[in-house]
Design goal:
Layout lengths: L3 E3 L5 H10 L7 H9 L3 E7 L2 E10 L4 E9 L8 H16 L5 E4 L6 H5 L22
Length: 138
């Protein structure tokens, strides 16, 4: 199967729908819109005109980059779309990052091995600490 790849953000409603398909909660549209617009890089994969995969990079554009929202619609998983998305993300990073930059990501539980193929390491708690996050709920 040949899919259409666009190196730009998907429409807000498409992105929200894709997040819903993988059981992720969506913030208010204005927050989601700002998040989409403030990203450094996007890749969106379509089956004709249906959004089936995304990935993006956020960060300061110099020292720190974070891979975010690597999402593949459930009915399209295990077909290489995640690899297609990551190939474009990795190409962007290799052309953008300066020597010494840090690229981070938060892997969904059980998906760590997917990212290991691209050279990402699981933080073991010894040399790098485990890493932490905080979710804001108001």
């Amino acid at each position: 199967m040949v899919y259409k790849v666009e190196l730009k953000a998907p429409a807000l409603d498409e992105f929200a729908n894709l997040r819903t398909q993988v059981k992720w909660k969506n913030p208010d549209d204005e927050v989601l819109k700002a998040s989409i617009e403030n990203s450094q890089f996007w890749v969106a994969v379509y089956d004709i005109d249906k959004l089936i995969g995304t990935g993006r990079v956020i960060g300061d554009g110099a020292m720190y980059f974070y891979i975010q929202d690597i999402i593949v619609a459930p009915s399209y998983q295990k077909q290489g779309i995640g690899r297609l998305v990551m190939t474009h993300v990795e190409n962007y990073l290799s052309n953008t990052c300066f020597n010494g930059a840090t690229v981070g990501l938060l892997s969904a539980h059980g998906k760590e091995s997917f990212y290991k193929h691209y050279g990402y390491v699981k933080r073991d708690g010894d040399s790098l600490g485990f890493g932490m996050c905080k979710f804001i709920s108001k």
